[in-house]
Amino acid sequence: MIDSLCDRAREKDIAVIGFYCDFLAQQEQSTINILGAILKQLICRGGIPEHIREAFRKAKKEFGGRGLRLPDLVEITKKAIVSLPRVFFCIDALDESTPQHRRDLLESLREIVLVSANTRIFLTGRPHIEDEIMKHFGEVVRIPLSPTQDDIKGYLEMRLNRDTDPSAMDDKLRPDIMRIIPEKISEV
Amino acid sequence: MSSGHQEVTGNVNSFNSFNVLTHNNIVNFVTETDAEGRQILQWLSPLEPQQRHQGVRTGRLDGVGHWVLETNEFRKWSDTEDGCNEPVLFGHGNPGVGKNASQVARLFV
């Protein structure tokens, strides 16, 4: 979806920002690191704005280089985003972040969209985090994500064609895989 | 700061150059940025989500999940000019799929 949005972004002045949450990277994917990574992508478009350089120089002077704090980062991001006509944030697998990081991230995003009505946020995750999202944003547009049979078959074809050990495949196994796996997934 | 840069290089969040889309061209970000700029980017976050996106892209099939883009929900949400008041689109995976829900969802992003 990021690519599709990027395709559209080429035609119009739209920024598409992506982030993938990963259960295995929970510690390093803190709220501040995620939001910082989002901001980095935002400012890539037109060079680093002067207000960010100033904030960095100021932080560098204090205690020989202070790390960023979340409220400061939110303010910097707000400043960076107001001048952009349209921004899409895509944050995937939000349920894989810790509840605390998630809460702080959602709150920060809410503050950011308040100053930029043209910013859109696409979140994916398991359904149980919907309540948390609603708590911060009130209403959300929901869309169930489950692969279609064609999606699954196309993906299986690709993986089988890339198999590094094709000798393990025979004329019976392949059709079995193509039949049974999409059936089983649809039953889940 | 430059030594910090060295340390980070090599771990998961290594600071490599990456290409960024602008509205009409692709720029290589790092080479266009001065020394202070590189420090600032590192200061903002050691994470490098672009790398991950490239990784997901190579394991993905073109066309998979494109139906999402055709749904009314997606269109309504993405078209700000049409006056959608909800800034958030939540794509939720089937609970029965368990951990794979997010992996399934990754096909779409």
Please describe what this structure looks like.
The complex is a heterodimer of chains A (188) and B (109). With 188 residues, chain A is of the alpha/beta class. Chain A has 2 domains: 2-137, P-loop containing nucleotide triphosphate hydrolases (Rossmann fold, 3-Layer(aba) Sandwich), CATH 3.40.50.300; 149-187. Chain A is 54% helix and 14% strand. Chain A is built from 8 helices and 4 strands; from the N terminus they run αβαααβαβαβαα. Chain A has a 3-stranded parallel sheet, with helices on both faces. The longest helix of chain A is centred in the middle third of the chain and has 17 residues, at 99-115. Chain B has 109 residues and is of the alpha+beta class. Chain B has 2 domains: 1-50, no CATH class; 60-109, no CATH class. Helix content of chain B is 43%, strand content 11%. Chain B contains 6 helices and 3 strands. Chain B has a two-stranded antiparallel ribbon with strand order 1-2. Chain B is elongated. The chains are: A alpha/beta (188), B alpha+beta (109). At the A-B interface, helix 1, strand 1, helix 2, helix 3 and strand 2 of A face helix 2, helix 3, helix 4, helix 5 and strand 3 of B. Strand 4 of chain A pairs parallel with strand 3 (88-93) of chain B.
